[in-house]
Specification:
mainly alpha, 2 strands, two-stranded parallel ribbon, homopentamer
């Protein structure tokens, strides 16, 4: 997943973005790793990349990680973009790879946008856009 | 959903309300965005607008976002009105739009009321009022 | 529910109790409202009155509200007595009203007791007492 | 349950242990009560005694209480031993009483051990010991 | 489980690692114990070893413990490696022991790696590695 982030960053041709990487054993170790990156390494934003398994216990772990990531954001006053791909999201490894690639790529673009301004993503709001899977479309009167 | 908020504000004819908008990729990014609006932009109240999907994972995301929004309120000492519409709340897109419009509109009115005084909503309490869907009615002796 | 609290207070004939009321749109708005009452209005105790719906999403909302209320207590070092009545607790509106009345009334008495001393409720402990519904009785050797 | 704690303390013949009691309406009121005991009454450890009902809502309440008790420990830097007995743990009142007595008694001994040193319980670790119910045994190569 | 940690540490031949042990009654007592080890004993990292039972209530306890452990990490700015083995993970005691041994051993190696640098585990990332059970493999284009 890190390679996809790197490619999206390269493609964006944003100048002056420096990338720090922190590898942890599992998704539940992500909150503290992000906190260290945001506070000690003075990063401006984090992407929390993880691929939880397909068992009930893995969903629980991911849920706990997500709660921790939200708390970390509130403690650091910075965004963390969570990019979790569940092993049961795709019907086979090929589809899973595609979801992984799209979601990670799109969320890297989102992360860059959030760094720029709070309205950068405005034109995409309310369009039912889902990163890595089919969009759900717009609803209107 | 933002347009509906804007319309409700215009209809209310409340003078001197300034509106700030912050667009994020998903509902789990709302807590930190609200925190920034309440603390850095010095907003007095937030409306957290989101439309979670209809899958179990989407419910979990919304649950995590809601917990984060409550924590954000406790940290900032300000109200955040959560307006989430679930994609499976309506039987079709038309009904979904209606729920979205009503709930968002009504909660904008609620937000204005909360800004004014802690008793502004008193006359509506205990009436079983549900924003965006059928009211459940009053119970009495 | 507020009227029942008021009646219980009147019946208790406790002198010098001043009552503040804060009305919010939904149960998830209760934690921040209680925090404001306890901190800004310098209330000594709160009663959080709510009537969540009977859908799964309503249970989730109530769960989030309850977690927020516990956090609020830990932040303010004061008690909040949660009085939630679920719309599916009674088989009809009449039974629901009875539960509402009993639970709210009894918890108002509990709130007064907690204000007085940490041992005021001691004689009722371990009796299987349930506010608003049938008591479950005592267990013994 | 308080009587069982008292008996276990007496049986332990530990000198100089002073016991403070705080009675609350329900398990969700335990976190704030423990916080007051640990901070204001300067207690060194708490035992949170509760007997949640057998309905789904009671499990949710106990879950919220447990989360609150863990947060309270992290805020006060002191142990709280949670002793919850669920009304559906025993097949009848007699069995329930036995579980209650054993779990409460054993956890009182645990509380005394934790007060003494961080290694006092070491010889019991990894033995599959369950307070109040059948032990699950040891696993080995 | 402690013996396995000790063996992994010995095998690693890392010089100068000092080991502190803290034994608690159950997994829900781990967060406060870790906090004390990280803050008062000035440990650099914790391993939280636990073996929750196979009942629903045990899963809930482990979930609460996990949330508490993540909060503890955010409060202390240090890693805690959670090593929980569920009694229903293995089909018999022999398999359970094997999972326990592998997961505990591997996570001890992870803990040592995290102490050294944030990139020490980098070469293992995205390989679908699961401590104590079958790896799930890599996904690629």
């Amino acid at each position: 997943m890190f390679k996809i982030v790197k490619k999206a960053l390269d493609d964006s041709m944003e100048p002056g973005i420096k990338l720090e990487r922190y590898t942890v054993p599992g998704v539940k170790d992500l909150p503290i790793a992000c906190k260290k990156l945001l506070e000690k390494q003075k990063c401006d934003i984090c992407m929390a990349l993880g691929m939880p398994g397909d068992q009930p216990i893995d969903k629980t772990c991911a849920h706990e990680a997500s709660q921790g990531l939200i708390n970390t954001q509130l403690q650091t006053n910075k965004h963390i973009i969570e990019v979790f791909i569940y092993l049961d999201e795709g019907k086979d490894k090929k589809e899973l790879y595609k979801i992984t690639k799209n979601r990670t790529y799109d969320h890297t673009i989102n992360a860059i946008a959030l760094l720029k301004s709070k309205n950068k993503l405005q034109k995409l709001a309310g369009k039912g856009i889902r990163q890595g899977s089919k969009n759900v479309g717009i609803i209107k009167e």
